[in-house]
Amino acid sequence: MSKESLSPNEVKEMVIAIADKIIASEELLSEADRRLGDGDHGLGMQRGFTAAKAQVEALEPATVGQVFSTTGITLMSTMGGASGAVMGMLYQNGGTALGDADTFDSACLSTFTTAALEGVTNLGGAKRGDKTMVDALATAQEAAVASAGKPLPEAIADVAAGAVAGMEATKEMIATMGRAKTLGEKSIGHPDPGAVSVSIMFTTASEYVNQ
Ligand code: ADP
Ligand code: MG
């Protein structure tokens, strides 16, 4: 049965499902980073989401935002690197923007992704087309805004499709930020590892809502 909206405890379950999927994707994410960077993205994500899962499991959340904010703060303090700060900010700013909402619906999805994108771009300075996770997050956010009036299962499926399309588009881009910058045109043909992470996160969220 798909879910029309999520309670704080269901958001907790969803974030744990995301953590499990990211932890299980360590090799895929490390391989993506071996092609463009230093090969540590999978390990950083695995470390961050192992810690975040433990923190979230211990929560008895009263609001939906609390689950996301706890995840973000834990990622920031455990992942390290450029991606730890931006990945943490995605969850922390997204969660804070939800205020004291105790239900997560498609309007919350739009609010979350908009604040997440704003937080990540303000902190990291990457723009669309720079071949970073911003490319997957921005297409996810566009889909979320366009689908804010739909039932949550449809809206989150649109957002997942948007994130995957944004990740796929990074294959054709030349990196201009971070470690992949030194590769120039050699970065063409490979997806950005952070964008792969973002596409996995939203795809898992959609699977949770639509299961
Ligand atoms: P590091 O680059 O420190 O080795 P990771 O390998 O864990 O960190 O993560 C690399 C990913 O971080 C990139 O694929 C990219 O998506 C993301 N990233 C790096 N810098 C930025 C930035 N300024 N803004 C947004 N995302 C960024
Ligand atoms: Mg790396």
Describe the 3D structure:
This protein has a single domain, classed as Alpha Horseshoe (Serine Threonine Protein Phosphatase 5, Tetratricopeptide repeat). It has nine helices and no strands. The chain has helices at residues 8-24, 26-36, 41-57, 64-78, 81-96, 106-124, 133-146, 152-170, 193-210. Helix 1 crosses helix 9, helix 2 runs antiparallel to helix 9 and helix 3 crosses helix 4. The relative contact order is 0.15. Bound molecules: adenosine-5'-diphosphate (ADP) and magnesium ion. Residues 33, 37-38, 40-41, 44, 81-83, 86, 120, 124-126, 132-134, 177-179, 192-195 line the site of adenosine-5'-diphosphate. Magnesium ion is lined by residues 33, 37-38, 40-41.
- Overall 3D geometry? globular
Bound compounds, please? adenosine-5'-diphosphate, magnesium ion
Q: CATH superfamily, please?
A: DhaL domain
**Highest-level CATH class:** Mainly Alpha
Brief account:
By secondary structure, this protein is an all-alpha fold. The chain has a single domain, classed as Alpha Horseshoe (Serine Threonine Protein Phosphatase 5, Tetratricopeptide repeat). It is 69% helix and 0% strand.
